């Protein structure tokens, strides 16, 4: 059977689009990391947020045809875990093997449920990690960056960090009403600590750090975080305590050749990013082959200092390549308040995904989550996104334009380049611009705006469909060609949206693309361009048979 109208494949944008060109920039696996999570508390929506951002980036680069690696895991050493173990009357190792194991299972369950495709799950208690930490310590020592000194300061167990007197302030403990000292930055309680420990010459890295940031203006994003990091450097960096006496901190990796000292938990934890690439490598080439330097470290705003100052300083001092980018996201609040167990406002991610479905939650987190500013989570807001965007725009358009009443043959409608009306042009121009707009915003980590670009086009596509009234066109045999053209635009809008949305909503996109009969091999970013991948005159294509035509069913 021949198609009733002439199809012209649209080549103009395909060969020269920016997304396609960008594909050749990477010569190593694209490597993304999430923070490694403390195993002493149940995973919450904030943890899921880090993981969904990281996973969406991984899927994005895979759609561009790259190999991508994603690391996640658990941060199991330190005083925080030691004390949690003591509170449970357990040895830390038993605590970690039981509680952490349970947490790991919960974290993995969460990751599996949320379709987080991690390639490595790292536990800092693994032997390969101990080896990597001991090695980097020895190199820092050999390179003259470590010395023994007395350290006095305010220590926060919760943050596992020392603060200077200028970084703490008085506050009133909510529970006891007593005056306590807390960190200005995080609000966590601190205690005065005097001890002998090993120090890292962070002060010696100050100029190199400043130069690195000024020659890599997107090394830390968003801009407000970059400015914060620059101002910390400008205020002057004091040397950093990188061990604790064994008498205080037993639960950690021993300083090589000094059984009285345990390596500072943040040095230990940060090294996990290279452990996962097989560090110690035979040479840097091996590191590159395995993904290092990381392309993107995803971190929460509270741990920027560790990732944008301490981590690059350690790497510089060890002559190792620096990560390409640190992306710091803001936090999720609930009722505009920090989530906390005691306030009872912690959002349980499993329950949210059970209720709305996995992909709608992923979509909501990326659409409304803040990078620069905190986002306020509410189930009502997820529902609004579900009803308005997902069911209202995308699901509705897909159902309407593939309805058997309008396409009784089940054949994918084809495009007639010679019959484009003024009205069609409005939508067509938006469709042509969409892939680059989406890719630019996504690569700039403006996920909400990238998704908005898709839904702006879908809104225009819905308008185009409604204004052209295909339900009337089908009644008039003379309007057959016009009907096809009108349906083509809606189907094409859904196809392009389906391809682009794969990174954020993998399952729903799969359903959409199956419904449209888009071959599994024709779902890459290069095929997200207007007119790409549709049948020629010789290759007609059937819409897919959908067992569940409603992609976004009504939620009660
Ligand atoms: N173990 C360290 C990270 C070491 S990485 C070498 C850690 N762990 S954590 O479990 O406390 O936090 C993990 C991540 O969750 C951090 O990036 C943190 O910012 C993030 N979040 C914690 N609460 C959050 C919200 N309410 N909202 C969004 N993210 C949140 O820090």
UniProtKB/TrEMBL annotation:
Catalytic activity: tRNA(Met) + L-methionine + ATP = L-methionyl-tRNA(Met) + AMP + diphosphate
Protein name as annotated: Probable methionine--tRNA ligase, mitochondrial
Pfam families according to UniProt: tRNA-synt_1g (PF09334)
Gene Ontology biological-process annotations: methionyl-tRNA aminoacylation
Family matches, as PANTHER family: METHIONINE--TRNA LIGASE, MITOCHONDRIAL, METHIONYL-TRNA SYNTHETASE
TM helices/strands, residue ranges: none
UniProt GO cellular component terms: mitochondrion
Source organism of the structure: Umbelopsis vinacea
Entry similarity comment: Belongs to the class-I aminoacyl-tRNA synthetase family.
Alphabetized InterPro entries for the sequence: aa-tRNA-synth_I_CS, Anticodon_Met, Met-tRNA_synth, Met-tRNA_synth_2, Methionyl/Leucyl_tRNA_Synth, MetRS_core, Rossmann-like_a/b/a_fold, tRNAsynth_Ia_anticodon-bd
Recorded GO MF terms: ATP binding; methionine-tRNA ligase activity
Residue ranges annotated for the Methionyl/Leucyl tRNA synthetase domain, each copy included: 31-401
Entry keyword annotation includes Ligase: yes
Entry EC no(s): 6.1.1.10
Keyword entries, A-Z: Aminoacyl-tRNA synthetase, ATP-binding, Ligase, Nucleotide-binding, Protein biosynthesis
Gene3D superfamilies in the record: 2.170.220.10, HUPs, Isoleucyl-tRNA Synthetase, Domain 1
Subcellular localization: Cytoplasm
Keyword Nucleotide-binding: yes
């Amino acid at each position: 059977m021949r198609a009733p109208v002439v199809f012209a494949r649209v080549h103009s944008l395909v060969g020269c689009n920016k997304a396609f060109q960008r594909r050749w920039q990477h010569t190593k696996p694209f490597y993304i990391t999430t923070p490694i999570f403390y195993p002493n508390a149940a995973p919450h929506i904030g943890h899921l947020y880090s993981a969904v951002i990281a996973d969406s980036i991984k899927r994005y680069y895979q759609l561009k045809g790259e190999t991508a690696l994603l690391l996640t895991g658990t941060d199991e050493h330190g005083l925080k875990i030691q004390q949690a173990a003591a509170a449970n009357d357990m040895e830390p190792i038993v605590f970690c093997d039981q509680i952490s194991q349970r947490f790991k299972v919960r974290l993995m369950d969460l990751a599996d449920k949320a379709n987080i495709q991690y390639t490595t799950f790292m536990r800092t208690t693994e032997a390969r990690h101990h080896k990597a930490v001991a090695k980097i310590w020895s190199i820092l020592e050999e390179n003259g960056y470590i010395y023994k000194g007395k350290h006095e300061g305010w220590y926060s167990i919760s943050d596992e960090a020392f603060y200077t007197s200028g970084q703490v302030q008085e506050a009133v403990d909510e529970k006891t009403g007593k005056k306590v000292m807390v960190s200005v930055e995080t609000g966590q309680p601190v205690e005065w600590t005097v001890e002998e420990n090993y120090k890292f010459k962070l002060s010696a890295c100050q100029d190199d750090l400043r130069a690195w940031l000024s020659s890599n203006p997107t090394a830390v994003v968003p801009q407000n975080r970059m400015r914060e990091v620059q101002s910390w450097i400008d205020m002057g960096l004091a040397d950093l305590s990188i061990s604790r006496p064994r008498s205080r901190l037993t639960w950690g990796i021993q300083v090589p050749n000094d059984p009285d000292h345990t390596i500072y938990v943040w040095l230990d934890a940060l090294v996990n990013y290279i452990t996962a690439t097989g560090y110690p490598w035979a040479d840097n080439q091996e590191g590159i082959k395995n993904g290092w330097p990381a392309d993107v470290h995803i971190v929460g705003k509270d741990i920027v200092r560790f990732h944008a100052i301490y981590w690059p300083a350690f790497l510089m001092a060890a002559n190792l390549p620096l990560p390409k980018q640190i992306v710091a996201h803001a936090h999720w609040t609930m009722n505009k308040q920090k989530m906390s167990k005691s306030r009872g406002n912690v959002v349980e991610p499993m329950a949210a995904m059970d209720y709305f479905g996995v992909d709608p939650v992923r979509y909501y987190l990326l659409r409304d989550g803040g990078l620069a500013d905190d986002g306020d989570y509410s189930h009502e807001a997820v529902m609004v996104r579900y009803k308005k965007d997902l069911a209202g725009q995308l699901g509705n358009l897909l159902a309407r334009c593939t309805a058997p009443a309008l396409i009784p043959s089940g054949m994918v409608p084809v495009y007639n380049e010679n019959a484009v009306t003024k009205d069609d042009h409005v939508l067509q121009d938006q469709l042509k611009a969409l892939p680059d707009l989406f890719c630019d915003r996504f690569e700039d980590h403006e996920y909400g705006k990238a998704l908005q670009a898709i839904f702006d086009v879908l809104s225009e596509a819905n308008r185009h469909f409604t204004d052209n009234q295909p339900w009337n066109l089908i009644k008039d045999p003379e309007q057959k060609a016009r009907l096809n053209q009108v349906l083509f635009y809606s189907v094409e809008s859904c196809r392009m949206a389906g391809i682009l949305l794969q990174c954020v909503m993998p399952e729903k996109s799969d359903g959409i693309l199956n419904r449209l009969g888009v071959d599994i091999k024709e779902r890459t970013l290069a095929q997200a361009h207007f007119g790409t991948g549709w049948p020629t005159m010789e290759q007609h294509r059937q819409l897919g048979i959908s067992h569940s035509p409603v992609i976004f069913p009504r939620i009660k």
